[in-house]
Design a protein that fits this description.
It is built from no helices and 11 strands. It is mostly beta strands. Strands 2, 4, 5, 6, 9, 10 and 11 form a 7-stranded mixed sheet that branches. Strand 5 and strand 6 form a beta hairpin.
Length: 124
């Protein structure tokens, strides 16, 4: 059973940066579609950054375009978050889909494996 563990969440000031990591123990991620979702209190989970299985296709939520970057290597998925805003405050989840999702999608139904989440709080 694939297990995902996120790390890197923290309290950061507006305008700051945070890098999240998601580790998949004993599992190579470089051929799978991966994504980062987030959920703020009282809101639905939303896909913020998604990467297709070949690594050539990305999809970003409009609210994070130009500020967030998703990447991966063999063992981890990363989310680089810059110029953070208070509205970025949420629990961030990584997710892994299948090797057949070549075109990036942030549809949560396409992802079978999920981490437990890591809290990012943007506040002065």
């Amino acid at each position: 059973q694939l297990q995902l563990v996120e790390s890197g969440g923290s309290l950061v000031q507006p305008g700051g940066s945070v890098r999240l990591s998601c580790a998949a123990s004993g599992f190579r991620l470089d051929a799978y579609a991966v994504a980062w979702f987030r959920q703020a209190p009282g809101k639905e989970r939303e896909g913020v950054s998604c990467l297709g299985s070949t690594g050539s296709s990305t999809q970003y939520a409009d609210s994070v375009k130009g500020r967030f970057t998703i990447s991966r290597d063999n063992e981890k998925v990363y989310l680089e978050m810059n110029r953070l805003k208070p509205e970025d405050t949420a629990v961030y989840f990584c997710a892994v889909g299948s090797i057949y999702i070549v075109q990036a999608t942030c549809d949560p139904r396409e992802y079978a494996y999920w981490g437990q989440g890591t809290q990012v709080t943007v506040s002065s």
